[in-house]
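Budget justification aside, the reviewers requested a transparent look at the raw inputs and outputs of the sequence design task funded under Objective 1. We therefore reproduce one unedited record. The lines immediately below are the C-alpha cells for a 271-residue chain.
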C-alpha cells in the first residue's frame, strides 16, 4: 500500500520514484543540517561501541554526563562568558553564531532569548526591541517575547507596532485580558478603533467587573461610525445592567437626538 502511494505521488508529480527519493533525501539533509552543530549526534549510525556502551548502562547505570563540545555549545558558552564580562559585542557575535547553527531551538535558553537578555542588561533598548521582534518572528508561539516587546513599544509610543504584535499575541492566547486591553488601546491611538470591536466583545465576557465599560466603548465606536442602531443596542444592554451609569445615559440621549433629527454627534467624547 505504501509503495502504491509513492508511485501515485511520483506519477502525479511527473517524476520517477528515484527522482522523488533523491528530492526527499536532499530536503531532509537540508532540514537536519542544524543538528550537526549539536553534541553527541555523531553516533547516529549506532556503531558497535555505542551499542556496548548502552548495554553496559543497563547493568551499571547511566554514565555521569560530561560536557560535550560542539559548534553550538561552544558558541553559547562564549556568549555566556561575554555577558559575564559585559562584552556586549562579543555576546552578540556568539549568540548570533549559535542561532545560525541551530535556528530551530526554542528552549528557555535559546540563543535569541539569551541575546535579548544581554541587550536588556546592557541597557540597549533599541537592540533589545529588535531582538524581541526577531524572536517573535522565529518562534511563532513565543508569548513571553510578545509581552516584553509590547511593554517596550507602548512605553515608546510606537502604537502601530504595539497593535501588530498584540494582534499576533492574541493568536497565541486569545483569552488574555491584558493583551486585549493593550490591543484596544493601540488601535485607539492609531485611529483604527473599528478593529477593536471584536476584542471589546471578548473583554465584556472575560473582564466581567468592567463589562459595562467595554460595551459602552463598543457603543461609542458604533456611534462614531454612524452606525446608530448597534450603538443604541449596546447602550441599552449597558443600562439594563447598570441603569444609573451616567455616561451610558448621556450617549443614549445623543444617539436618540441624532436618530430623530439628523443632529451631528456631540463634541464631548466618552472615555
Amino acid at each position: 500500500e505504501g509503495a502504491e502511494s509513492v508511485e501515485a505521488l511520483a506519477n502525479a508529480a511527473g517524476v520517477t520514484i528515484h527522482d522523488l527519493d533523491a528530492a526527499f533525501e536532499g530536503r531532509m539533509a537540508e532540514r537536519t543540517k542544524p543538528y550537526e552543530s549539536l553534541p553527541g549526534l555523531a553516533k547516529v549510525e549506532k556503531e558497535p561501541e555505542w551499542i556496548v556502551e548502552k548495554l553496559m548502562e543497563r547493568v551499571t547505570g547511566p554514565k555521569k554526563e560530561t560536557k560535550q563540545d560542539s559548534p553550538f555549545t561552544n558558541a553559547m558558552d562564549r556568549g555566556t562568558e561575554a555577558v559575564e564580562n559585559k562584552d556586549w559585542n562579543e555576546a552578540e557575535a556568539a549568540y548570533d553564531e549559535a542561532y545560525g547553527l541551530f535556528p530551530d531551538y526554542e528552549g528557555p535558553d535559546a540563543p535569541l532569548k539569551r541575546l535579548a537578555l544581554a541587550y536588556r542588561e546592557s541597557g540597549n533598548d533599541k537592540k533589545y526591541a529588535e531582538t524581541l521582534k526577531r524572536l517573535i518572528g522565529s518562534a511563532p508561539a513565543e508569548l513571553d517575547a510578545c509581552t516584553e516587546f509590547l511593554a517596550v513599544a507602548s512605553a515608546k509610543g510606537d502604537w502601530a507596532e504595539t497593535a501588530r504584535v498584540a494582534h499576533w499575541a492574541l493568536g497565541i492566547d486569545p483569552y488574555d485580558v491584558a493583551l486585549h486591553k493593550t490591543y484596544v488601546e493601540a488601535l485607539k491611538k492609531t485611529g483604527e478603533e473599528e478593529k477593536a470591536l471584536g476584542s471589546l466583545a471578548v473583554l465584556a465576557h472575560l473582564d466581567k467587573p468592567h463589562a459595562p465599560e467595554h460595551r459602552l466603548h463598543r457603543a461609542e465606536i458604533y456611534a462614531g461610525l454612524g452606525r446608530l442602531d448597534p450603538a443604541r443596542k449596546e447602550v441599552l444592554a449597558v443600562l439594563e445592567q447598570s441603569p444609573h451609569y451616567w455616561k451610558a445615559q448621556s450617549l443614549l440621549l445623543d444617539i436618540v437626538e441624532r436618530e430623530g433629527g439628523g443632529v451631528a454627534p456631540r463634541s464631548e467624547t466618552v472615555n
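The CA atoms of residues 37 and 66 lie 17 Å apart. Residues 266-271 have pLDDT under 50 and may be disordered. Computational costs for records of this kind are itemized in the attached budget.
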